[in-house]
Structures are given as C-alpha cells and as structure tokens.
Design goal:
Layout lengths: L3 H13 L12 H15 L6 H9 L1 E5 L5 E4 L4 E4 L2 E9 L5 E7 L5 E8 L6 E5 L6 E5 L2 E3 L12 E4 L5 E4 L4 E6 L2 E12 L4 E7 L2 E9 L5 E5 L6 E6 L1
Antiparallel strand pairs: 1-2, 1-8, 2-3, 3-4, 4-5, 5-6, 6-7, 7-8, 9-13, 10-11, 10-17, 11-12, 12-13, 13-14, 14-15, 15-16, 16-17
Length: 238
C-alpha cells in the first residue's frame, strides 16, 4: 500500500488540472511532505513523501513531441537532456500545481513547469511557469498504435464484461462505459511496449487503468490483465 495512495492523489490532481491556465505560485512542497509524515505517525507508515512519489512517476526516458530532444530522468533527481547532464526537483505550489524544476549542469537558470497528464494517460504535459516554452513528453519505450493497425483495430466496438457493464470503444479513441450507475465518458489508447506486449489504457475523469490485452482468433473475446497481477478480466464483443 505504501506510495499507492499518494501516487493516486498526485495523478488525480494532474488530470483535474489539465485544462486550467497555469501560473506560478509559492512552493508548499515542505508542507505537503510534512503532512504525509504526520499521517505516517497516525496510520503507521502508509504514506511516502508526495514529492518523492511524483519524482518516481516522472522518472524514465522521454521524447519531446515534435522535437528530436530526449530527456532521461532518474529517481535520484539527476538526468540528461540529450547529452547534457541535469538535476531536477518535483514539488507543489499554492496554485495547486504539481511542479517540475529542471536545472542544466553549468547553468544558473532553472526551468519551472507545471505537470499534468495527457489524454492517453502515458504522456506528460509540462506547462512553463517562467515564461518559457511548453513541453509534451512521451515515453520512449512504447509505440502508440493507430486503430487501423493490425495489432489494435480488433478492439473497436461494443464489449460487455459479464457483470452488466458495457464498454463502447470508438475509432476516434473516445469511449463510453455504461453500467448500473449510469454512463462515464473517457478515452483510451493502445500501445506496444519494448517487449512486444500490447497494452490498453483507459482514461476517465480522476484517473486511468492499464491492461495487457489479447484477442482471440475471431476477435469476439478480449482478455485483459492488469500488469503485475494474475487477474483476468474477460470482455465479449456484442
């Protein structure tokens, strides 16, 4: 359980702020991390420092959309932009921004961004808070698949899960989930990772879920497994 609750909180904040105009605020990172420490004392080590959780969430190798630049961000706060070394810090400010501060080695200038997730659930949008340019980062180790790709086109259509829920996946990557409690609109994306595993991520207001998926030969059944688990969710095409 450790880190999961904080990371979920972080992603919900990021998603809820995607469409808002960003402006810089005063840092409240110490106060937020201190609150998590107080919760540890009360609940028994269920929380990690939120800034640490954000750092882990953004760690990885990223390509900048519409650019040849690449960022490598490590969990220890070091990294590289192309061949240049950098350090970075994640935090929070009183404008409800989740922040990323980047400083290139040998430079006195810091770049400050607000972090939000994109509609695919895989990318990160960095909105400049210091007058600089915005960045859109995409994971370097996955390939986004178009719905016309042979590996992905079979998932378009209406599916049921046997529990009364209907999932309508559209070719514009939008989707609707219909259940007893009403309907929820969202989006989905399909990728293949470097090991050749096919993954589908469903994004709705407040968060996202990722599944490994396989289709049977005639495309009438889809098995979905959350990475790291053995639980199989079976959908049948309507």
């Amino acid at each position: 359980m450790k880190k999961i609750l904080v990371l979920a909180f972080v992603l919900v904040l990021a998603l809820s702020g995607c469409s808002e105009k960003k402006k810089a605020g005063e840092s409240v990172t110490e106060e937020v991390d201190s609150y998590a420490e107080d919760m540890n004392d009360t609940l028994g080590d269920q929380f990690s420092a939120p800034s640490e959780a954000v750092t882990k969430a953004v760690s990885g190798t990223w390509i900048v959309a519409d650019s040849e630049d690449t960022y490598e961000l490590k969990t220890d706060g070091t990294g590289r932009k192309n061949d240049e070394a950098l350090t970075f810090e994640c935090g929070f400010d009183d404008e409800k921004n989740i922040t990323l501060k980047i400083k290139m080695d040998g430079s006195d200038t810091e770049e400050l961004y607000a972090i939000s997730t994109d509609e695919t659930g895989y990318g990160i949008r960095l909105t400049a808070l210091d007058g600089g340019g915005n960045l859109y980062l995409l994971p370097a180790d996955i390939e986004f698949l178009d719905v016309n790709d042979e590996r992905a086109k079979g998932i378009i259509g209406k599916w049921s899960d046997g529990n009364g829920n209907i999932y309508q996946l559209n070719d514009d990557m939008s989707m609707e989930i219909i259940g007893d409690g009403g309907s929820t609109e969202g989006s989905f994306s399909v990728v293949e990772d470097k090991s050749g595993t096919l993954l589908m991520r469903i994004v709705v207001s407040g968060g996202s879920l990722e599944y490994e998926y396989t289709l049977n030969e005639d495309g009438t059944q889809m098995d979905l497994v959350s990475p790291g688990t053995d639980t199989v969710h079976q959908w049948t095409k309507e």
